[in-house]
Amino acid sequence: MKSCHFCRKRKLKCDHGKPKCQQCSSRGIECIYSNGFNFDVTMEDLLGNIPIRSKIPLDTSNKDSNNHKKEYREDNLLKFQFFDSNKGQYQIYGPTSWKAIIDVHKNTLETEYMNLWNFQKNKYNERKPETHLSDKEVKYWIHFEDAHSVIEIICNTLPTYEKTRDTIDKFFSSTLHDIYRIVDHQQILDAFNESFLISGTDPSYEGLLNDVFTNIHIPSDGNLYPIGIILLIITYTTPNFTPDKSLTSFLEQLAFSPSFSVYYIERPQFLLLMYLFKASQLDAPIWEIDRNNNLIMSICQSCKLLGMDRIDKWKNMNNYSNGMVHALKNTVYWTIFFDVNVSFEQGQTLCLSDELFDYTELYKLDTNAPETCDHSKSKENMTAFLKLVRPIVDDLNSTKFKNRAYLDDYIKVLTVFLDSGSLSINSPTELIESLPAHIYDLPMILLGGTILLALYHMKNKYFGENSIDVNNGVIKYSIMMLNFSCQMVQRAHKMDSFKGTHCHITDESISSHLYLSISITAPVIKRVILEFHDYFLQNISSSSHLYDDISFTNSDIPLHNFYLDKTHAYPLTPALQQFESITKSLWDHADGKLNERLGNSTAFTTIYALQTLSHLFALQKLKLIKLSGESKDSEKKRIDFCNTYSGISRNLWEINAFDLVRNELSQNIENVNAESETSETDTNS
Questions:
Q1: Which residues contact 174 (CB under 8 A, 6 or more apart)?
Q2: Does the predicted TM-score (pTM) go above 0.85?
Q3: Is 498 left (phi over 0), alpha (psi -120 to 50) or beta?
Q4: Stretch 666-682: mean pLDDT, rounded?
């Protein structure tokens, strides 16, 4: 083989340079030639000795680097925390949170932007009762002290046996289960057949398939969590079923009430499944999609309490099947993943720290697990990913972070991992009907990409770094993650072939793959929109070399790999246009059915409103900068921009952004732009 392993794996043109080709040299990774045979190379081989933890000292081989290190000694990121106050409730968001990143050194321009967005939130709250499904009239509202009496009440609210059994079977063939696999199919079927009784007769008898449930038998050990898992599946995935308050209240109290024992091994599975279902609810606006993150803390505490980091040591002491142990291991892996995800989004330290949780055994893959080849590869990718990102995210949000140069270290190792080919990413030009990456890799790609975006944006906002590297990093990873998310939504829409739904809380037009893809991509798109436009508003100016480059085209930013070109700067104005074009690709889709479906998702409706407001705001600033640049006192006009923008943007405040989604105010937008231009002329005068 003439090409090195990395270039072959990533399908790059290799110059066959020895000891390192140009592709590997530019990335700072090991260059490995196979000398005639194609063998697999591990991530450790490619990464070499690149440091990924802050406790590893930086290079101090010369005087300059020593001075560099001394200069950065007071670079603890915790000073950039954001203190949020809302209706008497307070919360601290740490350095990696988007709230901290876009708020630090907030100027009048950003204040105006946030005021504008808060105004739209108020508009949403005014119309909320009209668009949301009203709660079913409360039939029972009981404080559960006697589980037996409550179970008897719940029986009267369940669907028929036939519909319930069909729902359970469909769940275990669904995409959500296929990705996470945190509950065992056979275990749940056994619990269902043992505990859910109809007419006191064998439920397999054909003549009784339409009978209702008469009782739910509580096991002798009092473990209600397998029953709770079944009720979760019924509640969230039965078509056209609206659960009674007695059922939803029972599930909430089973999750949080101290009345129920926390020492059952199925409790983390129950809590994690509840989190996945709640995170997928499409009736929540975009600013409320993280409201269920408190569940992750409960899951982490449950895993610590049960000692689930030592599954291999105690599994032989219990009568668990291989499938059950495999599901428990997946529960731990995804708990660790979501712990990292929540830590990154809220800027908090990890709940499952190294001091309290032993990862040594968990990171050893179980070769005897009942997995397909794809699932085995996915577990290997997850292990490598968690090994890499956990210490990065934990360091950024803790007192351990002391040196801004570590941001470059973290960017380097994360880029190498994401661009190594371990995680499959399809080219956006490929005409395929499948998802833009292997379905098991999707959560890791999205989290890894948004971490890269945040790292570059932090360098700009926290430390004032204005370089080609930072500019291209923010622009590329913003556009790349937006494009990746939009592709995922579009292709999930195609995969469903317009068939049904697995969730009662949505309109039937939202189908299963689309339903899941929205829940995975919505938080990413929200963050990307906010960070990209924040960077744009802070860095666009008529004197900037990034401002106007007529030679730039959309194709200049490759979106199928994570490699960052540092030879020239990506200009901001074409990037803004490309960003808007990708977003509109969802709503201007040739298939009108996708528009209809997305219109039924409150999460995506509010995302589109956020993008619309952000884009209009950016266009207004561009117009004023161009206008100011034509006069001799342009610098003064740019300084006065923040003081005059409130008057210029007043017409935007009258737009109901949620109506924009249904194209009911397209003419109004044109009027707003025309009136804004008139306002600009008045300001210039």
A1: 237, 502, 512
A2: no
A3: left
A4: 48
